[in-house]
Design a protein that fits this description.
Elements: H1 2-45, H2 49-62, H3 67-79, H4 92-123, H5 130-143, H6 147-160, H7 166-177, H8 181-201
C-alpha cells in the first residue's frame, strides 16, 4: 500500500513539474493578448491605425484565428500613412522601389480582406458591419489597381448597407477613370438620388 501511495505521489510531482510551465505560459500569453487588445482598441478609437500595425501583427502571431483582428489588420494596412510616396524629381529606381512597397502593402490588404470578409459573410451573414467591410475591401482593390473588381465590391457594399451611398460616388469615379462615360453618368445619378433619399430619411 505504501509503495502505491509513493508511486502516486511521484506521479503527481512529475505532472506538476510538467504542467506548471504550460499553465504559466498560457497565463503569460493571455496577459499579453489582453494588453495588446487594449492597445489596439485604443489606437483605432483615435484613428491611429498606422501605429497599431505592429501590435496587430504580434496579436495575430499569438491568436492566428481571430477573424475580427485580421480585418482590423487589413484596415490598418489600407489606412497606413507611414509609406514614402515617390517624387517626380527622384531617380527612377528609387521611385520604382517605393511604388513596389506601396503596391505590396495594398495587395496584402486586399488578400486579407478577401479571405476574411468572405469568411465573415459565411459564418455571420447578418453581421451589421458586413457592408462596411466590403466597402473597405473595395478600396484596397482600387488602390491595387483592380478597378473592375473594386466596382463589384462597392456595389455589393451598398447592397448590404444602403447608407453607404458614397459607394455609388466611387463607382462613378472608377467608370470615369476607365473611360466608360455612360456608366459613370448612371452612377452619378444613383449617388445623387441615394443621397437625397438618405437626407429625407434623416
Amino acid at each position: 500500500m505504501d509503495k502505491i501511495i509513493i508511486c502516486i505521489f511521484r506521479f503527481f510531482c512529475i505532472f506538476a513539474l510538467i504542467a506548471l510551465p504550460v499553465f504559466a505560459g498560457g497565463s503569460k500569453k493571455k496577459e499579453e493578448t489582453t494588453a495588446l487588445k487594449k492597445q489596439i482598441y485604443g489606437l483605432h478609437k483615435v484613428d491611429d491605425e498606422t501605429t497599431s500595425i505592429p501590435y496587430l501583427e504580434r496579436y495575430l502571431e499569438l491568436s492566428q484565428n481571430e477573424l475580427y483582428f485580421k480585418l482590423l489588420y487589413a484596415k490598418a494596412l489600407l489606412y497606413r500613412n507611414d509609406m514614402v510616396v515617390p517624387k517626380p524629381e527622384e531617380p527612377a529606381e528609387d521611385r520604382i522601389n517605393k511604388a513596389k512597397i506601396i503596391q505590396k502593402n495594398y495587395n496584402l490588404a486586399s488578400k486579407i480582406f478577401q479571405e476574411n470578409v468572405l469568411h465573415l459573410e459565411k459564418v455571420r451573414p447578418r453581421d451589421p458591419n458586413l457592408g462596411r467591410w466590403y466597402y473597405l475591401w473595395a478600396f484596397s482593390e482600387w488602390f491595387s489597381d483592380n478597378k473592375e473588381k473594386s466596382i463589384k465590391l462597392f456595389l455589393k457594399a451598398v447592397k448590404l448597407d444602403y447608407r453607404l451611398t458614397e459607394a455609388y460616388y466611387n463607382v462613378a469615379s472608377l467608370y470615369e477613370s476607365l473611360g466608360q462615360w455612360k456608366d459613370a453618368s448612371l452612377y452619378w445619378r444613383k449617388y445623387e438620388k441615394a443621397e437625397k433619399e438618405l437626407e429625407e430619411e434623416d
